[in-house]
From TrEMBL, chain A:
SUPFAM superfamilies, per database record: beta-sandwich domain of Sec23/24, C-terminal, gelsolin-like domain of Sec23/24, Helical domain of Sec23/24, vWA-like, Zn-finger domain of Sec23/24
Functional description taken from the UniProt entry: Component of the coat protein complex II (COPII) which promotes the formation of transport vesicles from the endoplasmic reticulum (ER). The coat has two main functions, the physical deformation of the endoplasmic reticulum membrane into vesicles and the selection of cargo molecules for their transport to the Golgi complex.
Domain Sec23/Sec24 beta-sandwich: 416-519
Record-annotated Sec23/Sec24 helical domain positions: 533-631
Gene name of the encoded protein: SEC23B
Membrane topology classification: Peripheral membrane protein
Protein name in UniProt: Protein transport protein SEC23
Annotated InterPro entries: ADF-H/Gelsolin-like_dom_sf, Beta-sandwich_Sec23_24, Gelsolin-like_dom, Gelsolin-like_dom_sf, Sec23, Sec23/24_helical_dom, Sec23/24_helical_dom_sf, Sec23/24_trunk_dom
Coiled-coil features, chain-numbered ranges: none
Higher taxonomy: Eukaryota, Metazoa, Chordata, Craniata, Vertebrata
Subcellular location, principal: membrane
Domain of life: Eukaryota
Keyword rRNA-binding appears in the UniProt entry: no
Biological processes per GO annotation: COPII-coated vesicle cargo loading; intracellular protein transport
GO terms, molecular function: GTPase activator activity; zinc ion binding
Length: 780, 1101
């Protein structure tokens, strides 16, 4: 009876929780690993998966009109939480109590007319997320600084030039643009000159301080910090900087010509050498230029490069072609002689840039590695984009780049700048850290935990650039002591305050306040269990894993991940000791091990078969995409098209590969269309062109259309692979599916049930078997 | 003058050659202008005969023995004794002699290869044929004997007389001096020259009674040499010191000894004595003896100052004792004008044929043609002496520096042939195995032509098979005339890849124009001016031979505190400017498009040059950098892998933060202290290192300075100087007044012939060795002179020292080899060979000296000395050395005479006056108005001057414009640089290679003023004139043509300054009247001569 009841409620709970999670995500852009929180530190640690959330600060919300006033803040200096629906309000006394610090605050005069029936938006429950537009500081136009590598093949350069010229028309009308080109030298182009094109040239081998750069560019006037000196700066500032950064509407003709005349780096490259490419200095100058002229203004440094930096600070590889660029193997052997220095250089730049609120995008197109490993922090720390392609002359790059300037539903650019994320928690919680495209602002406060997960030690982070999909993982720690029970019905609350510069150059503040119930894990474990968001948890754990992988050895991370999984299974599985067969997981956990299985095989943790650049690239995107995309990355989606029925998602398993199927796989980075053996033969025979087999034609077309749909929305553009049974490109598919059939297990050999994969990797089945064994083992 | 002329008579040696005569008679005669011919003729012959004849026939010997003064004398004397041998030896090298006959024969069939050459040969050939006529057949081989004889016969008489005259004169003078001295005491000094001319006697009114004069000159004991200026030592002191001799010298001795020669003086006078008279006299005198013609003019050069008489008031030391103080007659002391004039008359009319060893060429002031017959033209090499002492002891004793002034790429007059280019194909030039000397006319082929013996080191080397050629019966190669390297003194080899840097043939050089665009430069209009000029100037870049367009590429840079490079690639729609602010670590921001072909990028360049002035019109930047500018150019050339030249236009002291930053350290208080030398030294060694790098790359720097204040030329000049570049300085540049000068300099500098990446080595016969070098270059070892660039004006002075004995027979040979890249990028070797005589008698040395060259060397030596020693030390050393030279002469070569007589070698009679000029020059004795920069500038300038330039620089040319004959195109006769010579009623022009002054006397006729200046009165003449107004009247035209002509002669455009008498500018002008006492304490000529005499006497006692 009791059991039954609990089961029913459980089922009900499941349904509710799924809805609840989805609702929350849609409204607030937040997904928590646990939606009912264990009420003490001890219990929380036993839950294995930390209490954490994925936050998409600028999640696009059609139904959220921003309000045109300033938020009301808690008056306690250490709190400053924003008035929200969870606050208790005394309408008569015109007082409100902060739900984080319990400070009682007077409403500001403007709120004099407040009453139960006349509530400001921020007090309404549906406005747990609300956006304010504030009139603060001058509105600075957005800045786009192109940093262009000229050591490209003619064709590549031409394509890049065209893309850049095209982009001018996509920029906001009043945006400021600048151009830096580099090869062996670095040139900062002055855009305002008539009759002669003028540029400042820097040696590509010499690192310069920001001060030197500004002196050399003739910008030596002390930079006026934008935020403070409102009155001082206005008249002169634009004049100074206008030499290198000009409103696009004024000089787009000039710049178009300039780009048109751009030549390949003229310095001779002798046989057996790489061109000398001064990426490090070019970036340094770009950063220095903006730092001096537009600190704390939304700006994008867009680096386009076609090869690795080969000289000066930040060089990644020498110019001798006979010395290949470092591989994972070299790195493990400590054989990458430039890596540390280069990484340090780019880190310094990234930090400087981030400190000034400027972001750095890296668009790199080359067949070989280009040093993304070393440069990754530039994009990672500043929220910039990272795009990797084979050539600038591919649609992958062209469309991706175009999409950078795509506009949202209301015609606004889907980019925001200089965001400052402030997280506030109620007392029982502390903030352990964040993982995402951000840097710490080092705001120590009462709600900052001593234990760090990700970028910790702060309650505020800076995200120099973000778009509606940018997602941070934020980890919390329950600090409530076991013996200090939380009053019944008590809720924990978290408030996310994101101040940012909107693409319209407005300053905006988005405030999201959420609350979750506390539960005693000893008595109400099933509630907690039911409220487990395994998708979010998988992504959050994956982020932790990837974060660790950046600094730890790969096997260590895997071991850690496995241990966590085993512990989780031990904690939440139902089994008899030492009896693997008896092992069961509840529905809310059922998918989790599979996610972890695929995560272990993913390029985020496996470096085998990936270059360091690719790893960096994959990890970069993984650390910033929202939950859905992250899940696709962890466990690619596989659809099957056949004459047997409508398209259906199928298991990511080798058994899904059948001769009469067309498969469409989306790994986020690649879209693979795979024609089964029979289908491929049909296609070769040309059946699709015969009127009587039109249905076959439609079958062939269906995955293409679906792929197109994905391609339309994805940023960056995935690699689009169209292949067939036996095709070389089929490896993209074969490397992803669960190798349930391999040359080693012959039980399915010769059957029509799929394609064997030639691998020694363990299959999901083996993995699960082991997991069960370990979970139930009393030894552990 | 006469001295020189005589010296030149030396050439007569050459004349004996058959070719010569032949020449004259047929070709010459015919060609020569009607009027002139005879004289010239005469001149020609004159010398020849004079030479040889004198010796034997007249029995001059005695006097000759003492080659007293004139080189002529020496010649004679030599001839007498040496001549035979000499000539013999000379001819011995059948080279010269052989040519004519052989050539005559062979030429006709001459290989086509050297068509030009052939031509030359032909000419030779003709003469050859002629020669036979005149000379005994024997002469063919050049037997001296033969030649001489005929000569003698022909001219014998006249020349003899002349020489005799001279000698006599000399003797006379001396003697007379002494003798006369007494009476005209004062005159004594002047004696030398004036005395000779009998006429003079008359003219010189007061001081020198007619007779005495001659007497003086002659005075010297007959035997004694005329040259001695019997400058009686300033009586008092001298006397005091050396009671005996001086006294006697003063009085007694002279008269008695010399009397004999009086007769001659008459004839001679023309030459020497009279300053002005000479010409007319000459004319008169010579006409009679056609042969003689002008040549004989050889003024009896003796100059002696009668110390006795001297008692020049000025000389403190010369407290005239017994005698009343006599002012020395300035006319009586050796006159440069006279010497120049005489040489011009004697030697200007006939070509100077270089076939004979050890000939003293005509003076640099003389216009003459050169025929290369185996020795380098004096335009390429001049020596202090053409007769080198055989032993170092002799050399030390004489103290005469042995130096050659070499101008390897000298411009030749259009009538002379450029050195032929020899291409030996891949094997390259033939060289001695041991010393690596290049094949030259002096190499001796042996063993039937299979081997040759090096004339420098005697090593025997196999003749490479491809170069083999049979010898004729005289031991000469059959292809002698077909090969420039066997028959000429100067020629070029095409270098093989082995002679190239990195074993790669060089690319054509580049010119980079680097323009200061700081506030000062923009404001003064300079930037606009340069840009405008460049637009047209770029069409006149130097080209090689007959190439259609110059191979030189150009690049542009502007700079202030930062540098702006320009991309002017032809494919660009508009130029691109690239700013490099990182001056601490200079680099070149672009490769492609920086250095471009002018024609291809014409429109882009034009657009750039239009825009530069606009772009910087509003600049407020006043600070400049300098070293980074050079570095930039250097890097650009490095990147382009070529040599080249930077033209830097700079205005101010580089004080901006950058390498090579300078501070203002000008401190006049240092003058005359031990620290004065620091003013000439660079502030920092940075530029020395930079220069070294530049030289390594072949980056030559030409610097145009436009200072408004001190900008430390000493430091800025380091790089230009060491890279073989030039510095031009326009202080207080003003567009209106200075632009023409600047533009002319710029045009010439850009257009002139230049070689790059040059290395010069001078090889010498065993026995002497090149030990020291002066000029604008860099040396990384002790033998190779490296120059990033070498233009046609740059001169290197090389000093030789003995390291062994030389022999009279084989003489001394010099071979100057210059490896360079031509303006089309061709790697070449230019070879200059010169053979000199060697002597065992000091007299021979003194007879074959060239004072102008000597001064060139001494000035350079002294100017280098100021870098390391106090100026006073340098001056004293100079005086001392000259005193020793003269004392040695007096002791060893002059006939015994009164110590009171100042006896100067004929060839060196101008040494005192010129030396005085050097001592008074701004570097060694600055006046208050001379800035530190000026001194540093001049110091560097002089260091690469050739002989002609130093000559006029130290002893400016002063021309009485009002005496000019408006109908002829000749120059008026120059006058001596002394205020006394100026007349209030005349207008004079003075030029020294840097400036032209037009001095207007207060009482010049208004008509003249009107004609010349276009104003009605003296007071209306503006001081600010920088050019003479163009007026349509003969006088104006004439003056302007004179000015133009002078400008044309100089490598720099001279600044024209109009000076009105008694105006404040006159002070400046007077500074250049070098015979006068200068305001800054420089001695007058007369005083200095006395001082010199005193020094000599001290040395002798």
């Amino acid at each position: 009876m009791c059991l039954l009841l609990s089961f029913q409620s459980f089922c009900r709970a499941m349904a509710t929780y799924l809805e609840f999670i989805q609702q929350n995500e849609e409204r607030d852009g937040v997904r928590f690993s646990w939606n009912v929180w264990p009420s003490s530190r001890l219990e929380a640690t036993r839950m294995v998966v930390p209490l954490a959330c994925l936050l998409t600060p600028l999640k696009e919300r059609l139904d959220l009109p921003p309000v045109q006033y300033e938020p009301v803040l808690c008056s306690r200096p250490t709190c400053k939480a924003v008035l929200n629906p969870l606050c208790q309000v005394d309408y008569r006394a015109k007082l409100w109590a902060c739900n984080f610090c319990f400070q009682r605050n007077q409403f500001p005069p403007a709120y004099a007319g407040i009453s139960e029936v006349n509530q400001p938006a921020e007090l309404m429950p549906q406005f747990s997320t609300i956006e304010y537009i504030v009139q603060r500081g001058p509105q600075m136009p957005l800045i786009f600084l192109y940093v262009v590598d000229t050591c490209l093949e003619e064709e590549d350069l031409q394509a890049l030039k065209e893309s850049l010229q095209m982009s001018l028309s996509l920029l906001p009308h009043d945006a400021l643009v600048g151009l830096i080109t580099f090869g062996r030298m670095v040139q900062v182009h002055e855009l305002s000159c008539e009759g002669i094109s003028k540029s400042y040239v820097f040696r590509g081998t010499k690192d310069l301080t920001a001060k030197q750069i500004q002196d050399m560019l003739g910008l030596s006037r002390p930079a006026v910090p934008m935020q403070q000196g409102r009155s001082l700066q206005t008249p002169e500032q634009p004049v100074i900087s206008s030499r290198f950064l000009q409103p696009v509407h004024k000089i787009d003709m000039n710049l178009t010509d300039l780009l048109g005349e751009l030549q390949r780096d003229p310095w001779p490259v002798t046989q057996g050498k790489r061109p000398l490419r001064s990426t490090g200095v070019a970036l340094s100058i770009a950063v220095g230029l903006l730092e001096g002229t537009f600190p704390n203004t939304g700006a994008r440094i867009m680096l386009f490069t076609g090869g690795p930096p080969t000289q000066g600070p930040g060089m990644v590889v020498g110019d001798e072609l006979k010395t290949p660029i470092r591989s994972w193997h070299d790195i493990e052997k400590d054989n990458a002689r430039f890596m540390k220095k280069a990484t340090k250089h780019y880190e310094t730049l990234a930090n400087r840039s981030a400190a000034n609120g400027h972001c750095i995008d890296i668009y790199t197109c080359a067949l070989d590695q280009t040093g993304l490993l070393e440069m990754k922090c530039c994009a990672n720390l500043t929220g910039g984009h990272m795009v990797m392609g084979d050539s600038f002359n591919t649609s992958l790059f062209k469309q991706t780049f175009q999409r950078v300037f795509s506009k949202g539903y209301n015609g606004e650019f889907r980019m925001a700048f200089g965001a400052n994320l402030d997280v506030k928690t109620s007392r029982e919680l502390k903030i352990a850290g964040a993982i995402g495209p951000c840097i710490s602002l080092n705001a120590k406060g009462p709600c900052v935990s001593e234990n760090e997960l990700g970028i910790g030690g702060t309650s505020q982070w800076k995200i120099c650039s973000l778009d509606p999909s940018t997602t941070l993982a934020i980890y919390f720690e329950v600090v409530n002591q076991h013996n200090a029970p939380i009053p019944q019905g008590g809720r924990g609350a978290v408030q996310f305050v994101t101040q940012y510069q909107h693409s319209s150059t407005q300053r905006r503040i988005r405030v999201t306040t959420i609350a979750r119930n506390w539960a005693d894990a000893q008595t109400q474990l099933q509630h907690i269990e039911a409220a487990f968001d395994q998708e979010a948890a998988a992504v959050l754990m994956a982020r932790l894993g990837v974060y660790r992988a950046e600094s730890e050895e790969g096997p260590d991370v895997l071991r850690w991940l496995d241990r966590q999984l085993i512990r989780l299974c031990q904690k939440f599985g139902q089994y008899n000791k030492d009896d693997p067969i008896s092992f069961r997981l509840s529905e809310s956990f059922s998918l989790y091990p599979q996610f972890i299985f695929h995560l272990r095989r993913s390029p985020f943790l496996q470096v085998f078969n990936n270059s360091p650049d690719e790893s960096s690239y994959y990890r970069h995107h993984f650390a910033r995409q929202d939950l859905t995309q992250s899940l696709i990355m962890i466990q690619p989606i596989l659809y099957a098209y056949s004459f047997h029925g409508p398209p259906e998602p199928v298991l990511l398993d080798s058994s899904s590969i059948l001769p009469d199927r067309i498969l469409l796989m989306d790994t986020f980075f690649q879209i693979v269309i795979y024609l089964g053996e029979t289908i491929a033969q049909w296609q070769k025979a040309g059946y699709q062109d015969m009127p009587e087999y039109e249905n076959f034609k439609h079958l062939l077309q269906a995955p293409l259309d679906d792929a197109q749909e994905i391609l339309q929305t994805r940023f960056p553009m995935p690699r689009y692979v169209h292949t067939e049974h036996g095709g070389s490109q089929a490896r993209f598919l074969l490397s992803k599916v669960n190798p349930s059939q391999t040359h080693n297990n012959l039980y399915a050999w010769g059957q029509e049930s799929g394609a064997p994969i030639l691998t020694d990797d363990v299959s999901l089945q083996v993995f699960m078997d082991h997991l069960k064994k370990l979970a139930v083992s009393s030894a552990s | 003058m006469s001295v020189n002329q005589q010296a030149h008579t030396g050439p007569p040696y050459g004349q004996p050659q058959p070719g010569y005569q032949g020449y004259q008679q047929p070709a010459y005669g015919g060609q020569s202008l009607p009027g002139v011919p005879q004289a010239q003729y005469g001149a020609y012959n004159g010398p020849m005969p004079g030479y040889q004849q004198p010796v034997p026939p007249q029995g001059y010997f005695p006097s000759l023995g003492f080659p007293s003064k004139g080189s002529p004398v020496s010649l004679n004397s030599d001839t007498s004794s040496l001549a035979p041998n000499f000539i013999g030896s000379l001819r011995a090298p059948p080279t010269s002699g052989a040519p004519p006959p052989a050539s005559g024969a062979s030429h006709p069939s001459g290989p086509l290869a050297y068509s030009q050459f052939e031509h030359g040969d032909v000419q030779n050939g003709i003469p050859a044929s002629a020669a036979p006529v005149q000379r005994p057949p024997a002469s063919q081989p050049f037997l001296p004997g033969s030649a001489p004889t005929p000569v003698i016969q022909q001219y014998g008489a006249p020349p003899a007389s002349v020489q005799q005259l001279r000698n006599h004169m000399a003797g006379m003078t001396i003697g007379s001096t002494a003798a006369s001295a007494p009476p005209p005491a004062g005159l004594g000094y002047g004696v030398g020259p004036s005395s000779y001319p009998p006429t003079t006697g008359a003219p010189r009114p007061p001081a020198m009674p007619g007779p005495p004069l001659p007497g003086q000159t002659v005075a010297a004991p007959p035997s004694s040499q005329p040259n001695h200026v019997s400058s009686p030592p300033p009586p008092s002191t001298m006397a005091g010191l050396h009671p005996g001799p001086p006294m006697s010298g003063l009085h007694g001795p002279p008269p008695p000894t010399h009397p004999p020669q009086p007769g001659y003086p008459m004839q001679q006078n023309g030459s020497f004595g009279q300053m002005r008279g000479p010409q007319p006299n000459y004319g008169g005198a010579y006409p009679g003896a056609p042969n003689y013609g002008s040549p004989p003019g050889p003024p009896p050069p003796p100059k002696r100052l009668d110390p006795d008489s001297i008692p020049s008031p000025q000389l403190n030391e010369l407290p005239p004792q017994q005698k009343p103080r006599h002012r020395i007659d300035p006319d009586a002391i050796p006159s440069p004008i006279q010497v120049i004039e005489d040489d011009r008359n004697n030697r200007g009319s006939e070509p100077f044929v270089t076939g004979v060893r050890g000939q003293v060429p005509p003076l640099v002031t003389t216009n003459f043609l050169v025929k290369d017959q185996g020795n380098a033209s004096p335009r390429y090499i001049r020596c202090t002496s053409y007769n080198i002492p055989c032993t170092s002891d002799m050399a030390k004793q004489s103290q005469v520096p042995l130096a050659a002034v070499i101008k390897p790429l000298a411009t030749l007059p259009p009538e002379e042939t450029l050195p032929y280019l020899v291409d030996h194909g891949e094997s390259g030039p033939v060289r001695c195995n041991r010393c690596k000397a290049y094949m030259c006319p002096f190499m001796q082929f042996i063993e039937g032509g299979r081997r040759f013996q090096c004339c420098f080191c005697s090593c025997v080397t196999e003749v490479p098979p491809h170069y083999f050629q049979h010898l004729d019966h005289t031991g000469k190669r059959v292809d002698f005339y077909d090969r420039p390297e066997l028959s000429l003194g100067s020629y070029e080899f095409l270098a093989t890849v082995d002679y190239c840097k990195n074993n790669k043939f060089p690319s054509p050089p580049a010119f980079i124009f680097m323009i200061d665009v700081s506030y000062n430069a923009v404001k003064s209009g300079l930037v606009r001016l340069i840009c405008e000029e460049l637009k047209s100037l770029l069409d006149y870049l130097p080209r090689e031979g007959n190439m259609e367009e110059s191979a030189i590429r150009v690049g542009f840079v502007t700079y202030n505190k930062v540098l702006h490079f320009y991309n002017v690639k032809s494919s660009l729609a508009q130029p691109q400017m690239m700013v490099v602010s990182d001056v601490a670590d200079m680099f070149v921001p672009l490769l492609d498009g920086f250095l471009v072909n002018v024609n291809e990028s014409r429109t882009v360049i034009a657009s750039l040059l239009d825009q530069i002035p606009e772009m910087f019109a509003d600049t407020r930047e006043t600070e400049t950098v300098f070293a980074p500018v050079i570095q930039a150019g250097l890097e650009a050339l490095k990147a382009a892998e070529c040599a080249g030249k930077l033209f830097i236009f700079h205005t101010s002291l580089p004080i901006a933060e950058a390498p090579g930053k300078l501070k203002n350290r000008d401190d006049r208080k240092l003058i005359n202290t031990d620290k004065e030398k620091t003013l000439f030294q660079p502030q920092t060694s940075f530029y020395n290192n930079l220069a070294k790098d530049c030289v390594a790359q072949g980056c030559c720097v030409d610097l145009f300075l436009f200072p408004n204040q001190y900008l430390d030329v000493a430091t800025l000049g380091v790089v230009p100087y060491q890279t073989g570049g030039s510095i031009y300085k326009y202080a207080y540049f003003q567009l209106e007044t200075d632009q023409y000068r600047f533009l002319n300099d710029l045009r010439r500098d850009v257009q002139k012939e230049v070689g790059f990446d040059a290395v010069m080595r001078v090889r010498t016969s065993t026995g002497i060795r090149a030990t020291d070098f002066f000029g604008a270059f860099y040396m990384s070892n002790t033998t190779d002179v490296e120059m990033a660039g070498l233009d046609c004006d740059k001169t290197i002075t090389v000093e030789f020292k003995h390291d062994d004995k030389l022999s009279e027979d084989s003489g001394a040979l010099l071979q100057c080899a210059l490896l360079y890249t031509s303006c089309a990028g061709q790697r070449r070797l230019r070879i200059h060979n010169l053979s000199l005589n060697c002597c065992t008698q000091l007299a021979d040395l003194y007879r074959n000296c060239e004072t102008d060259t000597l001064i060139n060397y001494l000035a350079k030596f002294a100017y280098r000395g100021v870098l390391s020693s106090p100026v006073k030390t340098v001056r004293d050393a100079l005086i001392n050395q000259c005193a020793q030279i003269l004392a040695c002469y007096r002791k060893n070569c002059a006939s015994p005479s009164s110590a009171g007589q100042l006896i100067l070698p004929e060839c060196m009679k101008l040494l005192p006056v010129y030396l005085n000029c050097v001592l008074k020059s701004d570097v060694l004795q600055p006046g208050p108005e001379v800035t530190t920069d000026d001194r540093a500038y001049i110091r560097q300038l002089v260091t690469s001057m050739d002989v002609a330039e130093t000559n006029v620089f130290f002893y400016p040319r002063l021309l009485p414009l009002t005496k000019a004959d408006v109908d002829s195109d000749s120059l008026p006769a120059a006058i001596r640089n002394s205020e006394e010579r100026l007349s209030k009623g005349d207008i004079y022009l003075l030029e020294n290679g840097l400036n032209i002054f037009v001095w207007v006397g207060v009482s010049v006729q208004q008509g003249l003023i009107q004609n010349l200046f276009g104003v009605s009165s003296f007071s209306q003449i503006s001081n600010a004139l920088s050019t003479l107004p163009v007026l349509e009247n003969p006088f104006s035209k004439k003056v302007r043509s004179i000015v133009d002509m002078l400008q044309g002669q100089r490598s720099r455009y001279m600044k024209l300054i109009v000076v009105k008498q008694e105006d404040k500018l006159e002070m400046l002008f007077k500074h250049f009247l070098v015979e006068d006492k200068s305001l800054t304490g420089g001695a007058s000529y007369v005083d200095f001569l006395c001082h010199m005499h005193k020094e000599i006497r001290q040395l002798l006692s």
